[in-house]
Amino acid sequence: MNNILPGVELSITVPPQLEAAVDYQGDARYFGLYWTPSGDEAIVTDGRSTHDGCWWGYQAFVDHPVVMLALANLRYDLGSSESEATHWLVIDRETRTASLAPGAEAEQFLTDQHPALSPVELTREEWEAIVKNVSTHLQSPVGPTDWLDVQHHLAEQNTCVDEMTTWLNQHRPANWQTQLLDRLLALGAAV
C-alpha cells in the first residue's frame, strides 16, 4: 500500500483531538469520515471497522471555518440528511493531514491499509459452542442503563469537541474571513 492519501489533499493540519471528538477508537493509521441519511449520522470507518461517530464532533470539524476554507474551492458532498455522501474525508493520523476523496476510492484505500485476514477454520464442535454462546447472550436480559455513565460519557465527549474547536480557532489563518468569503464568492460565480 502506498502512503499517499487518495483524492485532493487539504491544506489543513488535523487537530490532535479529532479522533476523540468523532469517537474513533481504533488504531489504524487512516480513517474516514462522512455523513449518511440512514439514521442521519456521522460515520467513522477505518476500512475494517465502521460505526456511527459523534455527530456533533463531526459537524464541529467540517463546519469550522478552517475546514470550510480548505474545502471551499472543491465540489463535493460529504452526505446529509437527504443524500448519501459522494466523497469522504480521509485522515492520516501519523502526519495529521486530510484529503477529500470519492467514496469508493476512499473506501478502497482504507480497506487496503489492513493485511488480508486468513480464513478461519472451525470444527463442528467449535462452531456449535459459538452459536450456543451467542444464543445465550441474546436471550439474557439487558441490565438497566446506568444513566450516570451515559451522562459522564457525554460530558467527556463535549469536552473533546470543545478542545478541538479551541485548537482549530487557534490555528485559523489571520485573514480567514476574507479568504473564505473570496472562495465562496468565486465558487458562486462559477455556478
Could you explain the architecture of this structure?
The protein contains 7 helices and 6 strands; from the N terminus they run βαβββααββαααα. It is α+β, with helices and mostly antiparallel strands and 191 residues long. It has one domain (8-190). The protein has a 6-stranded antiparallel β-sheet.
In short:
The protein is built from seven helices and six strands. It is α+β, with helices and mostly antiparallel strands and 191 residues long. The protein has one domain (8-190).
Percent helix, as a range, is 40-55%
Low-confidence stretches: none
Determine the number of helices (DSSP H or I, runs of at least 4 residues): 7
Q: Could you tell me the number of beta strands?
A: 6
Query: How does the major sheet shape up?
Result: 6 strands, antiparallel
Strand ordering within the main sheet: 1-6-5-2-3-4
Task: Write the topology of this structure.
Blueprint: E1 8-9, H1 18-22, E2 30-36, E3 41-45, E4 50-52, H2 55-62, H3 65-71, E5 87-92, E6 97-102, H4 103-112, H5 124-139, H6 147-170, H7 176-190
Antiparallel strand pairs: 1-6, 2-3, 2-5, 3-4, 5-6
